[in-house]
Structure formats: structure tokens, C-alpha cells
Amino acid sequence: MTTHFITAEIDLQESPAEMQRAIAAELQKRGEPLRWAVTRVDEVQQQVTVEAIVTVAEEPANP
Asked: C-alpha angle with apex 21: 19 to 26, nearest 5 degrees?
């Protein structure tokens, strides 16, 4: 298992609950989130920037 620092841009949602679900869904695509934070809100482009630490299972090496 390895850890990765990632940054994702996600469209703003109508409610905080929808925003949290959108963030969780995007992070899950990239691994298992350990922690994350919204680090920027761009009101003009209607996006938030999320920084996260995710874990990814290592694939076994071929002998």
C-alpha cells in the first residue's frame, strides 16, 4: 500500500451535504481517502480545490 498526495477540482454543489458526497466520490476514484481539506474556493469558476492524502493498494510484481 502506498500513500499519495492529490489535488482535485470539484464543481460547487447546491448544499454542503451534496458537496461532501461529490468530494468523497471523486477521491474514491483515486484511492482510499485518509484525510482531505478544501483549500480554495473559486466563486467565479464555481469550483473548489481539494487536497487529500489517499492510499492505493500496490499491485503484485510479476516474477
From this structure: 95
